[in-house]
Amino acid sequence: MSLSGWWLGFALVVLIATPEQGETFMQKNRKTALLQGDILIGALVSVHHQPKKQSIKTHTCGEIREQYGIQRVEAAFQAVDEINSNPDLLPNITLGIEIRDSCWYSSIALEQSLEFIRDALSDPSGLSSGAGSSLCPRPNNRTKNIVGVVGPGSSAVTIQVQNLLQLFNIPQVGYSATSRDLSDKSRFSDFLRVVPSDYYQAQVMIDIVRHYNWTYVSTVHTDGNYGQSGMTAFKELAEQFNLCIAKEDTVLSNAEDFVYDEVIKRLLEAERANVVVCFCEGMTVRNLFKATKRNNVTSRFLFIGSDGWADRTDVVKGLEDVFIGGISIKITSPYVHTFDELYFNLSPFNNT
Amino acid sequence: MSLSGWWLGFALVVLIATPEQGETFMQKNRKTALLQGDILIGALVSVHHQPKKQSIKTHTCGEIREQYGIQRVEAAFQAVDEINSNPDLLPNITLGIEIRDSCWYSSIALEQSLEFIRDALSDPSGLSSGAGSSLCPRPNNRTKNIVGVVGPGSSAVTIQVQNLLQLFNIPQVGYSATSRDLSDKSRFSDFLRVVPSDYYQAQVMIDIVRHYNWTYVSTVHTDGNYGQSGMTAFKELAEQFNLCIAKEDTVLSNAEDFVYDEVIKRLLEAERANVVVCFCEGMTVRNLFKATKRNNVTSRFLFIGSDGWADRTDVVKGLEDVFIGGISIKITSPYVHTFDELYFNLSPFNNT
C-alpha cells in the first residue's frame, strides 16, 4: 500500500496553498433583476457570455447577450406580469421573480444558486425552516421567498446546479437544457423541463442524413454534457443505420481561434466527407464558421446543426456565406406577438 | 420570438412543484472522522460506494469500501500523525484533519463540501471573515479551521467540487483525480494534484496496443469526465497512429446488469476485435467482467485497463478467469511498509 505516502504529499501541498486573504468571488456584486411578490421564482439566465479564457480566473463574464440574455429576462418579466394580471391564475397571490446571471458558466451559476438557496431556506412562512441548520438563512428582515429555480440555459451547467439544488429539495425547471442525461429521474430527481430530450434531436439529424443518402459524414460536438450526450445518441443511431463517421472532434465553446483552426484542418483531412454534423452550442457553431472562413474553405462543408444553432442570428451574423446550404434544428414553439410589441418598444436608456 | 410563451410554461410548473416540507438531504447526519488541530485539512474520501439506482433519490450510499475508503482514511490519519510527530515539519503547529464521505457521488460530495466551506469561512483567526457575508459562518463556539480540501477520488466529482470551492478561494488537492481536463488552470484555478494527467495514461495504452501490433480494437469508457476525457485522448492518439476502433461504448459505473450485458453483446458484434481498451473506473471494469462471465464469453476478450482498475483486488476478486491475459496501468507510488504495520494491527471492533 502506498496510500500513506500519497497523503503526506497532499498535506504539504495544502499547507503551501492556503487561501488568499481578502476578497473571494462570492463577494462580487453581480447585478440581479427583481420583481417582488408573495412568492418568488429564482431564474438563472445567461445575460453575459461565459468568461473568456483570460478572465476565467477573476470570474469576469464576457459580452452582454441580447437573444439568450436580455430577451429572456424581458420575456420572463412579461410572463410574470401576465400571470399576475390574469384573475384565473394564482388568484390572491402575487408572483415575483428574481433573475440572476449565470454567464453560461458552472461556477458562476453555482455561486448564484447559493444565493437562491439562502433565500429558499429563509422562507418567512417557516415551512422549510428545518433545513436552516445546514446553510445559514438570511437575517429575518429579508423577505424573499424563493420556491423554485428556473434555468439555467446550458445542460452542463444545469446538471451542476441540479446536483446542488436537490440537496435542499428546491425544484428546478429547465427552459433550454435538452441533454438526454437530464431525463434520468433517479439522478436528477428535482428537475423538470419544458423542452424535449436530445435523443429526439439526434433522431432528426439521422433522418436528415439518411434522407439525402449521405453515408460518410464528420462530426463535431461542444465539449460538455450537451454536445457529448447528444453526439453519443447520434452515434448510437448512426451505427444502427450503418452510417460511417469520417472524423470526429470535440471543442470547448470558448476555445481560442487556433483550436478551431485545428478542428477545420482535421475535418479537411477526410477528403470525401463534406457533411459535418455539429451537436454544438451556438457559439461553437459561430466559431467553427469563423474558422472555416479564416481558412478559406467557405464552400467546402455543409453543416447540420442542433438547436444550439437553430435560427439564431447571433450565430450566423456576418457569416452568411459559410452556412449556405446548412440545415439546423429548432424546437417548435409558438410565435408570441405580444412579446415583439413589448420588446421593440423598450428603450435601452430608461428601460421602460 | 417565442420566449415569453415558454416562460409562462415554467412559471406554472414551478408552482406545482413546490418543495416538500420537512427534512432535506442536508439534514442527514453523515459520519465524519475528525482529528483536531490548530489548522484542519478537509478530506473527501469515498468510504461508501455510490448510491444504487434505487437509492439515489434518498441519497443513501452503497456498501462500505475497504481499499478506496477505510484504507485511505487510515492512511490520512497516519500521514497527519507523522507530520505532527516530526519536529522539522510544521513546528509549533498541530495539523488536524476532518474526513467526510463523498460516496463517489457528485451531490453528496457537494453537500459535504458545503460543510467544509462553512468551516473555512468561520476561521477563528478572522483572516477570511470578509467572505462570511456570503455564506453563513458557524456560531463562534465552532473551532474548526479548514484551510483546504483534499480529494475527492473521482474526476467528475472533483470538477464539481472545484467549481464550488473556487468561489471561496479554498485550495483543493486531488489524490486520484487524473482527468486531463483538470490540468486546465484557467478553469480549475484552485486545484492541484499529486497524480499525473490521463493524457500520459492514454499514451501508455497506445504504446501497449502498438507494441503488440494490434490494429483493430474496441473501446469502452465510464460515462463521466474520467472516462470521457481519457478516451478522447486515446482516440486522438489512435487516429495519429492509424489504429482502427471497432466498437465504442460508454456505460455508467452503477448501471444495472442488463446494461452491461448489452455492452458485451455490442462488443461481440465486432467478430475480429478481441482487444477491449477500457478507460474505466474500477467498478465499471468489475461489472464488465461480471457481464463477460454471465454471457459465457470468458476467454473471448483481452482487456486493457486504466488506473481505475490498476492492481485493485476489489475489482477482480472472484473473476480471475475473466481478466487472465489482461493488462492494466498503475501509477507509480512507493510501497509504504509502515502503513501495513498500522493497518493490519487495527481491530475493527475497537478501532485501535
UniProtKB/TrEMBL annotation, chains A, B:
Keyword annotations: Disulfide bond, Glycoprotein, Membrane, Receptor, Signal, Transmembrane, Transmembrane helix
Per the annotation, which location comes first and is thus the protein's main one? membrane
Q: Which GO terms describe its biological process?
A: G protein-coupled glutamate receptor signaling pathway
Q: Indicate whether Protease appears among the record's keywords.
A: no
GO CC term (a single one): membrane
Q: Which residues form the signal peptide?
A: 1-22
Record's subcellular location: Membrane
What GO molecular functions are on record for this protein?
Answer: G protein-coupled receptor activity
Query: Which family is this protein grouped under?
Result: Belongs to the G-protein coupled receptor 3 family.
Write the protein's name. Metabotropic glutamate receptor 1-like
> What species was this sequence derived from?
Hirondellea gigas
